[in-house]
Amino acid sequence: MSTIAPRPEVTLDTETIETIAAIEAEVSVTVPPTRAVISWTETDEGLWAANYGGYFGGTVDKQGRHYFVSDTFGSYVGDFASLEEAQAQLASRLHVMLPNVIHPID
């Protein structure tokens, strides 16, 4: 039966900890995007189309004072009081429906 010898305790002084923290703060890590970028185009008066990571994401259609949203598959998402709310709801839905789409828009 083998026994494992205890490791000696390591302690760091304040200066060493500050140096390590400064080095970590300067390190630039390239992280791939976790969500696709959504861009909007007003394709007609009162009709906005979403570009979701290079793919068609859906539309927001203004009818009177209401903004009707359809997703990438043409499914009804909802009726909203503002353009911003409508676009945010579609964005949230797309992030859930299409989580693997992370292509940047050229």
How would you portray this structure in words?
The radius of gyration is 25 Å and the shape is elongated. The chain has a domain of 60 residues. Helices cover 26% and strands 31% of the residues. It is α+β, with helices and mostly antiparallel strands. A five-stranded antiparallel sheet has the order 1-2-3-4-5, covered by helices on one side. The longest helix is centred in the C-terminal third of the chain and has 15 residues. The chain starts with 13 loop residues before the first helix and ends in a 9-residue tail after the last helix. The relative contact order is 0.17.
What structural keywords apply?
alpha+beta, elongated, five-stranded antiparallel beta sheet, 106 residues
Unreliable segments (pLDDT under 50, ≥5 consecutive)? Answer: none
- The dominant shape is elongated
How is the largest sheet built, in terms of strand order? 1-2-3-4-5
Helix content: 25-40%
Largest sheet: 5 strands, antiparallel
Radius of gyration computed on alpha carbons: 25 Å
**How would you spell out the order of helices and strands?**
HEEEEEH
Number of helices: 2
What portion of the residues fall into strands of 2 or more residues?
A: 25-35%
Average pLDDT value? 82
First CA to last CA: what distance?
63 Å
Structural class: alpha+beta
Q: Total strand count, please?
A: 5
Detail the topology: elements first, then pairings.
Layout: H1 14-26, E1 38-44, E2 47-52, E3 55-63, E4 66-71, E5 76-80, H2 83-97
Antiparallel strand pairs: 1-2, 2-3, 3-4, 4-5
